[in-house]
Amino acid sequence: QVQLVESGGGLVQAGGSLRVSCVLSGRTFSLSTMGWFRQAPGKEREFVASIGSYGGAPVIANSVKGRFTISRDNAKNTVYLQMNSLTPEDTAVYYCAAGTNGFANAQTTKYNWWGPGTQVTVSS
After folding, report:
1. Using an 8 Å Cβ cutoff, are 108 and 45 in contact?
2. Main-chain dihedrals φ then ψ at residue 114, nearest 5 degrees
3. Whose CA is closest to 60, among 78, 77, 37, 76?
4. I need a surface site. Which of 36, 78, 117, 119 has the fewest CB within 10 A?
5. pLDDT value at position 95?
6. CA-to-CA distance for 38 and 111, rounded, in angstroms?
7. CA pair distance 68, 9, nearest whole angstrom
8. d(Cα 122, Cα 15) in Å, to the nearest integer?
9. Mean pLDDT for back-to-back runs of 10 residues, the chain (124 residues)
10. How far apart are CA 52 and CA 63, in angstroms?
């Protein structure tokens, strides 16, 4: 059974930083494309960042480019999202997702498994 568990969310002031993590179990992590998405109240889920299993360049959404970084540690079955210079507009539930195609991808349909999400709240 494939399972994703996010952690590291919380409350932070505008301009601050936060790192969220996601651990994958039940599937070979090194073969999995990993992605982060977010959903704010009343809005659709949107892509944030993705990293493939083949070592290619990550894909980062324009809205967070230059502020957010995605990375992975295959030895720990963990993907990270480092978030800097946070603004209230970054407030959302952040979801981790895993896919099988091996390449970084921004489309939700390319991901087979999803975590329950972790809340990130940025105060002004």
Report:
1. yes
2. -135, 145
3. 37
4. 119
5. 98
6. 14
7. 14
8. 9
9. 96 98 94 96 96 86 97 95 98 97 92 97 97
10. 20
